[in-house]
Write a structure and sequence with these properties.
- The strands form four sheets. Strands 1, 2, 3, 4, 5, 6 and 9 form a seven-stranded mixed β-sheet that branches. Strands 13, 14, 15, 16, 17 and 18 form a six-stranded mixed β-sheet that branches.
- The protein folds into three domains: 134 residues; 32 residues, no CATH class; 139 residues, Nucleoside Triphosphate Pyrophosphohydrolase (Alpha-Beta Complex).
- It is built from eight helices and 18 strands.
- It has 342 residues and is an alpha+beta fold.
- The chain is globular and about 65 Å long.
C-alpha cells in the first residue's frame, strides 16, 4: 500500500517555508502577475467554471475583489507561480436553499454576493465526485485546514489577548505576552481490525444510513500510534487487538486532521459496543466487504467513498490473500490468544 492515499494527499506545492518570514519576498510574490489564489467562505471553496470544468484557482487580483478577506496565507508555489489562500467573512455568502440528503456532505447552497457566476461547493462532494484533480483537492485541503486555524484561533491561549498573523499566515503572535502560536494538526488513528477472512466495521449515528467504516479515534497525549489503535478499538467495540501495522496516511481537512491508517490483528471476537460512540459494529467477511465497496450488498450496506482512507484500507485488505503478518507475528498472536483463554 502506498504511503498516502487518494483524497487530499499529493500536494504538489513547494511550501516555501524558508521565505515565510521574509515580508518583502512574500509581497513580491503577491505582486507577481502570475500569482493565483484559492478562496474559501463558510469553510467551502469558491470555484469558477471553464466549460465543463471547475477550477479552484483565481488570479490573486481578481480573488481580492471577491470581498475583504479576513486572512491571506501563502500556500506555496508550483510551476504556474505563487499560490495564496483567502478566507472571506461568512457574511460574504448568502444561502439560496438548504437540503439534507442524510450524507456527511455540507448541502448548503451558497452564492457569493455580486458574483453569482461563481460556485461554492462542499469539499467532500468535490472529492467524492472527482470534480477536481488530486493535486487541486490536496491544495484545497491545505487551504481549508490553515484557514480554519485562523478562523478559530484569534485569541492567545496564554493571556486571552487578540493575536496577529505572521510568517505569511503560518503563525499567530500575541503582542500582549509575546507567545507564538502555530497551526495545529490533530493526529487520528483509523484502523481496519481483521481476523483471517473477517474485518470489523462500525457505524456512528451521524453516518449516512447503511454506511459502515473503519473504527477511528484521536491519538491522545503520551501514547503511541499502536497504543491508540488498541485503546480505541477496545473502548468502542470491546475487541482486543494485538499486532498493529501501519499502512498509509491521509490529510483530512475536516477540519485539520492527519489520519494514520493501520491494520490491526484481533485477539478476540466478542463485540461489546460503546453506545455513546457507535450505533452498530459487526464482523464482515471478505465477500461482504467487497459487496459493500461495489454497492451490491444484500442489505444495502456500503463503504465510504474513494476520498476516505477507510476505503483504501478495505481495498488493500481485499487485495491480500493473507493478512500479511510475519511468522513471528503469527506466533505472537497465537501465544497471546492462548494466554487470554488460559
Amino acid at each position: 500500500m502506498p504511503d498516502s492515499v487518494e483524497g487530499f494527499a499529493g500536494n504538489p506545492l513547494d511550501r516555501l517555508s524558508l521565505l515565510r518570514e521574509d515580508a518583502a519576498a512574500v509581497a513580491q510574490m503577491a505582486a507577481d502577475p502570475a500569482a493565483m489564489a484559492v478562496v474559501l467562505v463558510q469553510s467551502m471553496p469558491i470555484l469558477r467554471a471553464e466549460g465543463d470544468a471547475l477550477l479552484a484557482r483565481h488570479p490573486l487580483a481578481q480573488a481580492r475583489d471577491f470581498g475583504a478577506a479576513e486572512i491571506e496565507v501563502l500556500l506555496g508555489r508550483d510551476e504556474s507561480g505563487p499560490l495564496f489562500a483567502l478566507l472571506l467573512p461568512d457574511a460574504a455568502a448568502q444561502m439560496q436553499e438548504e437540503a439534507d440528503d442524510g450524507s456527511l456532505s455540507d448541502r448548503r447552497r451558497l452564492v457569493l454576493q455580486n458574483k453569482p457566476e461563481l460556485q461554492i461547493r462542499d469539499l467532500r462532494v468535490l472529492a467524492a465526485k472527482n470534480r477536481l484533480t488530486r493535486p487541486e483537492l490536496a491544495i484545497l485541503g491545505q487551504a481549508k485546514s490553515i484557514l480554519h486555524y485562523h478562523a478559530t484561533h484569534g485569541f492567545c491561549a496564554r493571556c486571552g489577548a487578540p493575536t496577529v498573523a505572521f510568517a505569511a499566515g503560518w503563525r499567530r503572535d500575541c503582542p500582549a505576552c509575546g507567545a507564538r502560536h502555530f497551526p495545529r494538526t490533530d493526529p487520528v488513528a483509523i484502523m481496519l481490525v481483521v481476523d483471517g477472512d473477517f474485518c470489523l466495521l462500525g457505524r456512528a449515528r451521524h453516518f449516512p444510513e447503511k454506511m459502515y467504516s473503519c473504527l477511528a479515534g484521536f491519538i491522545e497525549s503520551g501514547e503511541t500510534l499502536e497504543e491508540a489503535v488498541r485503546r480505541e478499538v477496545f473502548e468502542e467495540s470491546g475487541i482486543v487487538v494485538g499486532a498493529v501495522r501501519y499502512a498509509a496516511s491521509q490529510p483530512w481537512p475536516f477540519p485539520a486532521s492527519l489520519m494514520f491508517g493501520c491494520i490491526g490483528q484481533a485477539l478476540s471476537r466478542d463485540i461489546r459496543i460503546d453506545a455513546e460512540e457507535l450505533e452498530d459494529c459487526r464482523w464482515f467477511t471478505r465477500a461482504e466487504a467487497r459487496a459493500m465497496i461495489e454497492e451490491r450488498h444484500q442489505e444495502g450496506l456500503f463503504a465510504p467513498g474513494k476520498a476516505a482512507i477507510a476505503r483504501s484500507l478495505l481495498e488493500h485488505w481485499l487485495r491480500e490473500e493473507q493478512v500479511g503478518l510475519r511468522e513471528d507475528e503469527v506466533a505472537s498472536i497465537a501465544e497471546a490468544r492462548a494466554q487470554k483463554t488460559a
